[in-house]
Amino acid sequence: MTASAAPEANPAFHLSGEALMGLRHLARRGVTPATRTLAGLPGGIVTRRRGRGSEPDDVRLWSEGDDRRHIDRNATARTGILHVRTHHDERDRAVVLLADFRPSMLFGTRRALRSVAAAEALALLGWRVVGDGGRVGLVVAGGDAPTALRPAGGERAMTAITGALASAHARALALPTADDPPLDALLTLARSLLPSGGHLVIASALDSPGADFDRLLTLLAERLSIRLILVSDAFERTRPPGFYPFALPDGRRGTVQAARQPTREPAPGRLPADERLADYARRGIEGLRLDVEAGPEAYAPLMERLDAVL
Length: 310
What we know:
Elements: H1 17-27, E1 38-40, E2 46-48, E3 55-61, H2 73-79, E4 83-88, E5 94-100, H3 114-131, E6 135-141, E7 147-153, H4 154-174, H5 184-192, E8 199-204, H6 213-220, E9 225-232, H7 234-237, E10 242-247, E11 253-258, H8 273-281, E12 286-291, H9 296-308
Parallel strand pairs: 5-6, 5-8, 8-9, 9-12
Antiparallel strand pairs: 1-2, 3-4, 6-7, 10-11
Helix pairs in contact: 1-3, 1-4, 3-4, 3-9, 5-6
């Protein structure tokens, strides 16, 4: 399906800034003080960060084994009983979200376009990061000039990001059909917005990323933490034989016959999503698969896991 196959109000095709703003409630489910001091690994394993952190957290009674350097003199003098000050991890995170709205992303067979799913996942992650005191920026790849917002914190930052996502998506839908521009230059733009040690999260199906994309991504991974959200439409994973209707942006419609998926090995660059993720993981770039048909309710726990390793 394409954008021309549905009315403007259809959320499967058109991003709404208000809808992305509303995802903050879904993103914040289950966020507790404990989650701000834990770091997860991909999967179900969660480990506590090392060190005591540098931000004051609370004052409590002294207990055997506490470090005397952490004694709170004011509380001790006031009560006559030893008190210590506890600390929590200071996480000054700068995260840039890279959303792919190039022509190939304006495609979907169930629930929504791939571009819409990418924006939903990134918005959920952004709300989690700012809710934990981090800063979030944005780069949007489309068929025209890219959108870029420097990392900032708080709800105001996410208001700007959700509005920018909706506006960039509307522009992408309005452009005539064209080949995907490469993502190479967008990596350089995203790098310019981040300090060394910052975090870059890319939501894309990575169709036609560019001849230099993998090389640049590997180089950037030496200075940045890079995570991939590989967007996957159900038709890409399972394509039963049959006749499939389609609609093009110029209004033309038709039907195409799809045969059974070939049993031969797919061409390089067109590996199944899980194999592509494994290939990137071998280069130190972790990621996860985002199934378009699942929707934000299913994306929320995935973004919680991703947030834990940023």
